[in-house]
Specification:
This protein is α+β, with helices and mostly antiparallel strands. Helix content is 22%, strand content 37%. Strands 4, 5, 6, 7, 8, 9, 10 and 11 form an 8-stranded antiparallel β-sheet that branches. A 4-stranded antiparallel β-sheet has the order 1-2-3-12.
């Protein structure tokens, strides 16, 4: 299930890119901080110095292995990691997925938070996730993100999205309902170095 969720987000990104013929472009002045690394998990905390990120999932969730997807010079180029709970007899599996998408290879008008939210929403709809609500300024780790809520059958998903100077940061939380997902959000620790991540503004 963990691998499936990571692959789902990779498919979403690939679908977004395939429906935007102009996304694969050569950028004349790529950002200097584009040395994207996979990062590593230490005592169930994901650390990635290239992103300026430390991420600890809510209690009961365990991280898998971080993955790099894509090719330098093309979109999407992402690093992703997922954490999930063990499915019990009377409970559904809960999960948290993070990915960072390098924005340098997208057209300039596709790099904003608003544009990224629209692309992800369209892709989610194609995978059967129906939009429920959205909040432009929602806090995660003391940083303002765009929050979008979705539902698919018995699953509820909340996605936090923020496009910064170099990367789009996406955190997705999945559970049985909005209360379960909000508990995951509250139990998650996010430390984002604003300067290293490019999210100063």
């Amino acid at each position: 299930m963990l691998r499936l969720k990571v692959l789902l987000f990779a498919c979403v990104l690939s679908t977004v890119a395939s429906h935007q013929p102009s996304l694969v472009q050569v950028v004349t002045k790529p950002p200097l901080r584009l040395k994207l690394e996979k990062g590593a998990v230490e005592e169930n905390t994901y650390k990635n110095a290239s992103l300026g990120l430390e991420l600890t999932p809510a209690p009961g969730l365990k991280f898998g292995t971080p993955q790099m997807k894509g090719t330098l010079g093309t979109a999407p180029l992402i690093v992703t990691i997922a954490a999930q709970s063990e499915k019990g007899f009377f409970s559904e599996t809960e999960s948290t997925v993070f990915y960072a998408d390098a924005l340098a290879y997208y057209p300039e008008d596709q790099r904003s938070t608003e544009a990224y939210v629209k692309k992800l929403t369209r892709a989610n709809i194609r995978f059967g996730y129906m939009p429920i609500s959205s909040v432009p300024n929602s806090q995660l780790g003391g940083v303002s993100f765009f929050r979008s809520d979705f539902r698919k059958d018995s699953k509820y998903e909340v996605v936090f999205i923020k496009s910064c100077d170099v990367y789009a940061f996406v955190f997705a939380f999945v559970g049985a309902d909005v209360d379960a997902v909000d508990s995951l959000v509250l139990g998650t620790k996010v430390k984002l170095d604003l300067r290293q991540s490019g999210c100063v503004n």
